[in-house]
What does this fold into?
Amino acid sequence: MANIREIQTRINSVKDTMKITNAMYMISSSKLTQARKKLADTEPYFYALQGEISRILRHMPELHHSYFNQREEIPAEERKIGSIVITADKGLAGAYNQNVIKEAEKLLAQHPSTKLYVVGEYGRRYFDQHKIPIEHSFLYTAQNPTLDRAREISALLLDGFLAGTLKEIFVVYTDMESSLLSEAKSTRLLPFHRTQFAPPAKEKAVQEPFEFYPSVGAVLNSMIPSYVSGFLYSALLDSFCSEQNARMTAMDAANQNAEELLSALRLQYNRVRQAAITQEITEISAGAAAQRGTFGSEG
It folds into this structure.
C-alpha cells in the first residue's frame, strides 16, 4: 500500500493536471465564441450571394455553364477528384480528427486516385505516416481561419477545375449543427447541382426580364468564385468551432474524471493517515504498558 507521502504527491499531480484542463477549457470556450461571431458576421453576404445565383438560374433554366456541368459523359471511375480535408493542428479534442480522417478514407476507398489538399497539421502527419500522397498542403495553421485563406484555397481548386485537371471537388470537414451535435461529412462542392440554389418556398418570382452585362456567363464567373470562397470559409469556421467544442467536451470529461480520482485518493489518504495514527497510538500504549510493568517489578 502506498504511504502518505506518495498519495499526497499523486493528489498534487492530479490538481496540477486539473489546472491545465481548466485553462484549456476556458481558452477553447473563448475561441469558440469568437469564431461563431465571425461566422455570423459573414453569413448574410454569402446568403445574399447564393440568393442572387438562385435568381439567375430560376429565370434562365436553359443556362449552360462550366460550374454546373455534371460531366455525365465521364465514367465515375475515370473522374479526377480533388478533396480539401480540414483537420486540426493538434489533438486533445476527442474523436474530432479521427472522424474527419475516416470520411477522407471513405472517399479514398471509392476513388483511390483522389488528390488531397490538406489543412491542419494533424491531417498532414497522418497522411505522411500512412504513405498517402498529398497534392498540396496549406502550411498555415488551422487555428486562425480567415477569408483570405479561404480565397487562397478556392483559387487553387478553381484553377484545377477550370483547367480540367479536377473534374469534381469535395470538401471533408466537420459541420457543427449545434453545441450538442457535430458531424464529419464529405460534401461535393463542384460541379454545382442546381438544387443547391433552390429558392425559398415563400419567395415570389419576378416576372420582369433580366438584363446581364456583359453576359450572364460573365456575371456568374464573377459571383461564383466569391460563393466558393464563402463556402470554404464557412467550412473552415465550422471545423474550427467543432474542434473547440470537442476540446471543451474532452476537457470537461477530464475534469470530472480528475474529481473522481481526487475523491478516491483523498479517501485512501485518510485511511492510510488514520491507520498510521492508530498504529502510533498502539505503539505508545504498548510502550506505556511496558514502562508500567518495568516500574512495577522494580517496586
Remarks:
- The chain has a mean pLDDT of 82.
- The CA atoms of residues 118 and 137 lie 5 Å apart.
